[in-house]
Amino acid sequence: MHKVLIANRGEIARRIIRTCKSEKVATVAVYSDADKDMPFVREADEAVHIGPPPVPHSYLNVDAIIDAAKRTGADAIHPGYGLLSENEAFARRVQEEGITFIGPAPEVIGQMGDKLTARRIMQQAGVPVVPGSENSLDTVDEAASVAADIGYPVMLKASAGGGGIGMQICHDEASLRQAYQSLRGRAKAYFGNDSMFVEKYVERPHHIEVQIAGDQHGNVLHLLERECSIQRRHQKVLEESPSPFLDEKTRELLCQSAVLAGKAVGYTGVGTVEFIVDENKNFYFLEMNTRLQVEHPVTEEMTGLDLVSMQLAIANGLPIAIDQDEVKALRHAIELRVYAEDPVTFLPSPGTITLYQPPVMEHVRIDDGVESNTQVTPFYDPMIAKVIITGTTREEAVERAIHAMQNFQITGIKTNIPFLLEVLADERFREGNYTTWFVQERAANSKK
């Protein structure tokens, strides 16, 4: 591997460029009209324009990306996260063109991208799954029948999608019937697949994920877990590791299950197995993300490993360079996602960043994609930076996080920094006593 084209933008493109430079691998950036002046474009060794701002005409334009790779002689493509990163057809096209895809095999992406298929594979592998339907539900009556059997509340899900768009909590049959058609329509529009299934809804769970890595020699190991329960509309806002909720026995069982999941599909590359964990520490498979996660720096800072470097090595056919017993939690790490959005309404806040001055402090890492005078457009995700803080203890990491966010200056647009500071100061968060309902419960209490 001599030259990597990065089929992405913003902070993750800069992140990948950084490791490639350290390993003397040339990089190619692709960019839309809206991104021509962004830092990642300047920092790559080469840059190729691929279209206008809307993602279907640029960052999702497979032909333009493949053409850019051929024109520049790139022998590998790194998809980053989001966009085409979990697109089975794209991964297969890259391979058919004789280019290395830095990620798992296309068939693994396809298997794990369909939640019903993923459920079946995990059940066969002995990984715990949430009680629910085993097949696609073609009618609302079928969905209601399964829900009655497993008991309400249930989560109605699109089998091909995730996030807030692809799921809805139903507390009774009336709400299930009301949600079914609208969710099915959204699934067809967003994911091109309207198949649905139902799972038992685990109330007030923890969302905990395990980082895994697998090579082409059959080795799969875990890189410990991340607590991802601070969420807004099913989207993560803050992540930390180790989880303050898990005991050592549960941690070991959870991580072993993630390794089983990776081995069940012959996973190659870096990926994440996500679980929900109830109040009694029973855990259930949620999904597998077949890509680098937004929150991967939490694991990097906790373990001292470079996950992008691992991706490059695995794609080059090398065995994983460490053994399982060498993976250690060296420190506590917290990641805060800084968004260009109103801290009260959470609506995006596009505009020009007139001043961008992140904190420069020991034990604080900034992964960002912007600078002063950068234009934040409405075309892309409003996340503009990630702040990753470490400490010898969780308490120390939290205090450092507060200090860092108090010294993060951004003007010209609104950001969620005030909201993040409120989270860090919240007593339940400080105690490590929070679930995926933290944000909703906090908002409800503030209105009383």
Blueprint of the fold:
Elements: E1 3-6, H1 10-22, E2 26-32, H2 39-43, E3 46-51, H3 62-72, E4 76-78, H4 88-96, E5 100-101, H5 106-113, H6 115-125, H7 140-150, E6 154-158, E7 167-170, H8 173-191, E8 196-200, E9 206-214, E10 220-232, E11 235-241, H9 248-264, E12 269-277, E13 283-289, H10 296-303, H11 307-315, E14 332-339, E15 351-352, E16 355-357, E17 364-368, E18 375-376, E19 383-391, H12 394-406, E20 409-411, H13 417-425, H14 427-430, H15 438-446
Parallel strand pairs: 1-2, 1-4, 2-3, 4-5
Antiparallel strand pairs: 6-7, 6-8, 9-10, 9-12, 10-11, 11-14, 12-13, 14-19, 15-18, 16-20, 17-19
Helix pairs in contact: 4-5, 7-8, 12-13
List keywords for this structure.
single chain, 448 residues, alpha+beta, 8-stranded antiparallel β-sheet, 15 helices, 25% strand, globular
Radius of gyration: 21 Å
Reading side by side through the largest sheet, how are the strands ordered? Answer: 13-12-9-10-11-14-19-17
State the helix count. Answer: 15
Largest sheet: 8 strands, antiparallel
- Cα shape: globular
Helix content: 25-40%
Low-confidence blocks of residues: none
Mean pLDDT: 94
Query: Structural class, judged by helices and strands?
Result: alpha+beta
Task: Report the strand count.
Answer: 20
- β-sheet strand percentage: 25-35%
Please report the distance between the alpha carbons of the first and last residues.
Answer: 58 Å
